[in-house]
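Thread: "does anyone have the structure for this chain?"

Original post by V.I.:
We have the sequence but no experimental structure in hand. Need at least a predicted one for the grant figures.
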Amino acid sequence: MADKKGELMYTRPPKLSGWDSFKVFLWNSETSQFLGRTGASWGKILLFYLLFYAALIGFFSAMLAVFYQTLDDRKPKWKLEKSLIGSNPGLGFRPMPPDSNVESTLVWYKASDKGNIQFWQQQLDAFLATYEKENNPNYNNVETCQPHQKPSKGKVCDVKLDGEWQKCVKENGYNYDSPEGGPCIFLKLNKIYGWEPEYYNSTTVPENMPEYLKQEIKDAEERNDYKYVWVSCQGENPADVENIGMIQYLPKWGFSSEYFPFENVDGYLSPLVAVYFEKPRRGVLINIECKAWAKNIIHDRADRRGSVHFELMID
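Reply from O.Q.:
Generated one for you, C-alpha cells below.
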C-alpha cells in the first residue's frame, strides 16, 4: 500500500462574513491584489485605455480640424436656395408682446395708463438701442450713405433715427401716449446672407399690389428713386380696413437698396420702416397684415413668407 504521509491535504478556506469578504476583495495581502487585480494587471489595463482614448481624441480632433477648414466665420457654406432658410426673407415687427405670452402677436395697451404704455416703449428702446453710436462697438464701420449708393468696401450704411421719423422716435414716446393718435410699429426684413432684392418698377408691378403703392412706385420711378423693398400694411378683413385709419411709412415707404446685400460686415444695421397708425379706431381689435414687395419675395399667408401678421388694440 502506498505511503500517504507525503500527500498534501486540501482544507476549505475559512468562511468569511460579508464585510470580511469585501476587505479581502479591496486588498488581498496574500496575493497582493487590489480590487481583484495585481499591480501588473492594473498597469496593463490602464495603459490600454490610455492609448485607446488618446487615439480616439486624436482622431476626433483631426476630423474636427478638417471640418473647420471647410467653414468661414463670415459667411455660411450654403447660401440662398441651397441653405435651410432659403432665399425668401420674412418680415418681423417690434415691439413684441410679453415673453409670458410668446405665441401672441397682439399689441394691446391703454393710452391713458402710463404704466401700461411704458412696457411697449421700453421694448422699442431696447430694440433701437443698437442703432445708437454708443451701443454699437463696431460703429467705426458705419458710414452715411446716399440713397441707393452702396457703402465703401468693409463698411455698412447708417440708419439714423432723426427728425425724418417724426412721431416715431424715443423723444415722442413712439406716439403710444397720444390721446388720439395711434402707435408706431417698426418693421424689419430677416437677414439672409447674399440676398439681393429684384426691384419693381411701374411696368413690372403685380396685379395684387395695392393701387396706392403702384402709384407710389410710378412716382418714385420718375424721380429715379424706386429701388426699394416696398412695404404695405392693410387690415385683413373688411371691418379691419374700416377701423385701421390712415397710415404713414417713415422715413421711407420701404427698405432702400443701399442696405443690400447683407454680408455679415461688423456693425451692420438692418434697415427699418416705422408704420405710424394715425388714428386707428379705439376699443376694437384690428387684424393687420404687412407685406414686403420685391420680385423675388413670395407671399404665403399660411407660412407667413414675405409678410407678417399682428393685431392692434387701443383702449
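V.I.: this helps a lot. The helical segments are 18-26, 39-69, 114-128, 211-222, 238-244.
O.Q.: and Residues 39-69 form the longest helix (31 residues).
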